[in-house]
Amino acid sequence: MKLPTWFKSVLQCRLDDVFARVALDPELRRIREEKDMAFQRLFSDPTIINKPEFSEWEDISHYKQEVENEYLYWQGMQDGAQLAYIIMMLIMDDEQETVE
What we know:
mainly alpha, 100 residues, single chain, rod-shaped
C-alpha cells in the first residue's frame, strides 16, 4: 500500500514536532549539558580512557541516549494509538453511511 503524499507530509510534520520537543525538553537539556561537560573533562587529558572520568562520560552518554529513545518510543506509541483510533472511527462512520 502506497501512502498518499498528504499523509507522508502529516507524518513528517509530526516527526519534526516531536524532535523539536525532544531538543527543547528541560530534563533532556540538563542531561545533554552533563554529557557535554563530561566529554570536555574526558578529552582534557589524553590518557583519560583509563580514568574514571571516561566511565562517567560513557555512562552519561548512554543514559542520555536511553532517555531520548524512551521518550520517542512512548510518543510514537501515543501517536500510533491516536492514528489507529481515528482510522477506526473513519471506517465506522463510512460503514454507517453505507448502511443508511
